[in-house]
Amino acid sequence: MTYLAKSNLFFKEDETQWEVVGEGVQRQIVGFDDRIMMVIVKFDSGAIGTLHNHHHTQVTHIGAGAFEVTIADEKKVLKKGDSFYIPSNAMHGVVCLEEGILIDVFSPIREDFMKLTNI
After folding, report:
1. Are 29 and 97 in contact (CB under 8 A)?
2. Residue 104: which of 45, 57, 34, 72 has the closest Cα?
3. How far is Cα 24 from Cα 9, in angstroms, rounded to an integer?
């Protein structure tokens, strides 16, 4: 299915609700069209982004905090200013070691996120 909607041209954090997506994990969808999506994910210390995979390619920048990041068979501790790339269908997940923010970019759009948030 092709998703034909697109986001506003500008995003203001204080005008967008945070969506709770897990214990100690919240997200905001900040920009998208049918080919690309950016999402900000806020983690409390100790929160877990469970291991999962999806067909989307993902690039993530750590905007704050520190995370133990697992991609396939590799695990690294990364901190604010670091980034990581996740190939399509690779198992991946994070453990937040220090309260933090991840900035995720997906291609194509995560249609499952759109259905959950009714955008």
Report:
1. no
2. 57
3. 29
